């Protein structure tokens, strides 16, 4: 199938498919006319790539994992070395989420306190001046 059809079947733009190919994540043959030709397995491969990207993995990570990938989800048997790296990345994400939650809670507290105090004689904030950190 040509790149346009692969894009239609997977919902992925052709420029993204070309990028995946440039990153070594997707392979295409070249027809006699020079057009990219993809096998039926490319549909599954693109779906795997999208799911792994959605998990926050880099194209370099995905290139390492794809030989282990099984199914559309994909399952990753045979890549135990990568588990530690993924656990570490998950830990970093958990820490970021916790920091964001603390920031959100603090901001909500400030808003609540300001709303309880009510209107005070203060020049209106128009958004052009930075808010002190």
Give a structural overview.
The structure is a single chain. This protein has 133 residues and is mostly helical. It is built from five helices and two strands, in the order ααββααα. It has helices spanning 3-10, 14-22, 41-54, 59-65, 80-117, and strands at 29-30, 36-37. Strands 1-2 form a two-stranded antiparallel sheet. Strand 1 and strand 2 (36-37) form a beta hairpin. The longest helix has 38 residues, at 80-117. The model has no long low-confidence stretch (mean pLDDT 88).
Jot down its keywords.
133 residues; mainly alpha; two-stranded antiparallel ribbon; 5 helices; 57% helix
Q: How much helical structure, as a percent, in the residues?
A: 55-70%
N to C succession of SSEs: HHEEHHH
Low-confidence stretches: none
**Total of DSSP H or I helical runs spanning 4+ residues:** 5
Report strand %: under 5%
SSE layout and pairing:
Blueprint lengths: L2 H8 L3 H9 L6 E2 L5 E2 L3 H14 L4 H7 L14 H38 L16
Antiparallel strand pairs: 1-2
Describe the structure in brief.
The protein is mainly alpha-helical.
């Amino acid at each position: 199938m040509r790149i346009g059809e692969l894009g239609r079947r997977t919902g992925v733009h052709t420029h993204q498919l070309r990028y995946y190919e440039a990153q070594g994540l997707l392979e295409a043959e070249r027809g006699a006319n020079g057009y990219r030709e993809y096998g039926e397995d490319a549909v599954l491969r693109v779906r795997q790539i999208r799911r792994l990207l959605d998990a926050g993995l880099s194209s370099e990570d995905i290139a390492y994992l794809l030989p282990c990938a099984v199914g559309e989800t994909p399952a990753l048997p045979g890549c135990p070395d990568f588990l530690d790296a993924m656990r570490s990345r998950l830990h970093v994400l958990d820490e970021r989420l916790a920091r964001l939650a603390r920031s959100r809670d603090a901001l909500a507290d400030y808003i609540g306190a300001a709303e309880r105090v009510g209107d005070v004689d203060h020049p209106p904030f128009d958004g052009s001046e930075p808010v002190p950190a």
